[in-house]
Amino acid sequence: MFDYLANPTRFRAITAVIFPVAVVMTVTAMCYGLYLAFFASPADYQQGETVRIMYIHVPAAWMALLAYLAMAVSAIFYLVWRHPLADIGARAMAVPGASFALITLLTGSFWGRPMWGTWWVWDARLTSMLILFFLYLGYIALADGFERPERGSKPASLLLIVGVINLPIIKFSVDWWNTLHQGSSVLRFGGPSIDPAMLLPLLIMALAMLGWFICISILRMNTLLAQRRLTALEIRGHSSQRGQA
Amino acid sequence: MSGDIGFFAMGGYGFYIWSSWGAAAGILIAVTCHSLIRSYRVKRQLNHHITDQNEGDHFG
Amino acid sequence: MADLSPKMRRGIGLLLILTALGLAAMLVLSALRDHVVFFYGPTDIQAKAKQGQIVRLGGLVVDDSIQKDQDGIRFQVTDQTTSIEVRYSGILPDLFREGQGVITEGRLDGDIFQADTVLAKHDETYMPAEVADLLKDQGVWKGQE
């Protein structure tokens, strides 16, 4: 199945259908999500209005983990099947993925200050999330650090795969260790411990961010594909010029 | 203006809530613009390149 | 091994690396188990902490235990087995209240815990105030006051 999708022409044909759908989904979910988050959802019984930070913090954290997982799966496809499109996919997802990690850290800080009484603590959850952000930065530096980008693909893919260990650590850090960060509210045994009126804006915002991530990843993949074509054409142009002289 | 009441004051937590959403919006918009600009630039270069080569084929 | 395609060999190689990494991570994590802990409960603190040693104490603030005087504030922190009296003078987080979780950094001075910082820890329950009131009225309230 992967070989079927891996053909660049077919990839362009498929994404030409997915892209507009994803744009519509992003815009719709974002508008509805903003309305729910600010106008149609109540304040929390303990945390008051600051619960509205959750509607951006939690979806961003989910997406930071999901984007990393998608990149790691791409890296496996690249390392085993050696298909350049898998590598391009991982590269395209790196910057949006890193932005989700950064958003999680920043909004968490703005939430922790008024509620916990601190901008930052080195507990297991916060530290492992910071490590995820550095893994993203490390991947970007490795993948783009070479003059010929293909040379960075292998070490960068290996880094992605090694870093997967961090994902279960982030997810279960609040169960395995005493942390300042509270336990999971949505994905936990016994069902969500969030009131439906607060769960809905959370899920809609997650949908909006997923849509945005799909749009940006497709856009960046197409750019990278065009870039590779351009480089190939330039090399061919140079060699034909040399041939004529 | 009136302390803790009103939409933008957010029960006294306005600074933290608007900073969070502002930072998130800023990052998402910046990445969107960066991706769009790079896409247009590379596509324009590619088009130039293709038309250049076609002209070269005609006259060469 | 000689008959395997390059694809298979790369796949098996990757699988071996992943297994080794997973095992290494599990070993490191189990070794770190005690060091990654962000705070200790009152029982652990009383049993293990030395006088004057900087530690973090975490637990629930006992109901009706908060007293304020010129020196600051004093309250009891409990893990339902042991309680320790905490003294603190400084700014309290907005979520600091009786029945809520709290994490304080400081040192044991006799039986009293002198705190330098106090952080609030909340649980994973989110609901509107009206729902919380309703649950209390119906007597099915399980959370904190």
Question: Would you mind describing this structure in some detail?
Answer:
The complex is a heterotrimer of chains A (245), B (60) and C (145). Helices cover 78% and strands 0% of the residues of chain A. Chain A is an all-alpha fold and 245 residues long. Chain A is globular, with a radius of gyration of 21 Å. Chain A starts with a helix and ends with a helix. Chain B has a domain at 22-59. Chain B is built from 1 helix and no strands. The model of chain B has no long low-confidence stretch (mean pLDDT 84). Chain C is α+β, with helices and mostly antiparallel strands and 145 residues long. In chain C, 30% of the residues lie in helices and 30% in strands. Chain C has a 5-stranded mixed beta barrel with strand order 1-3-4-6-5. At the A-C interface, α3 of A face α1, β6 and α3 of C.
Topology of this protein?
The complex is a heterotrimer of chains A (245), B (60) and C (145).
Chain A: H1 2-5, H2 8-38, H3 54-81, H4 84-115, H5 124-144, H6 150-163, H7 166-176, H8 196-244
Chain B: H1 14-59
Chain C: H1 6-32, H2 42-48, E1 54-61, E2 67-69, E3 72-78, E4 83-88, E5 101-109, E6 112-121, H3 129-138
Parallel strand pairs in C: 4-6
Antiparallel strand pairs in C: 1-3, 1-5, 2-3, 3-4, 5-6
Give a nutshell description of this structure.
The complex is a heterotrimer of chains A (245), B (60) and C (145). Chain A has eight helices and no strands.
Q: Indicate the CATH topology of one domain in chain C.
A: OB fold (Dihydrolipoamide Acetyltransferase, E2P)
Query: Helical stretch count of chain B?
Result: 1
What ranges of chain B have pLDDT less than 50 throughout 5 or more consecutive residues? none
Which class of secondary structure composition applies to the elements of chain C?
Answer: alpha+beta
What is the count of DSSP helices of chain C, taking H or I runs of 4+ residues? 3
Give the fraction of residues assigned to helices of chain C. Answer: 25-40%
User: What average pLDDT do the residues of chain B reach?
Assistant: 84
C-alpha end-to-end distance of chain B: 74 Å
Distance between the termini of chain C: 66 Å
Q: Which percent bin holds the helix content of chain B?
A: over 70%
Q: Trace the largest sheet of chain C across and list its strands.
A: 1-3-4-6-5
Bulk shape of chain B = rod-shaped
Helix and strand sequence of chain C: HHEEEEEEH
Structural class of chain B: mainly alpha
What is the percentage of strand-forming residues of chain B?
under 5%
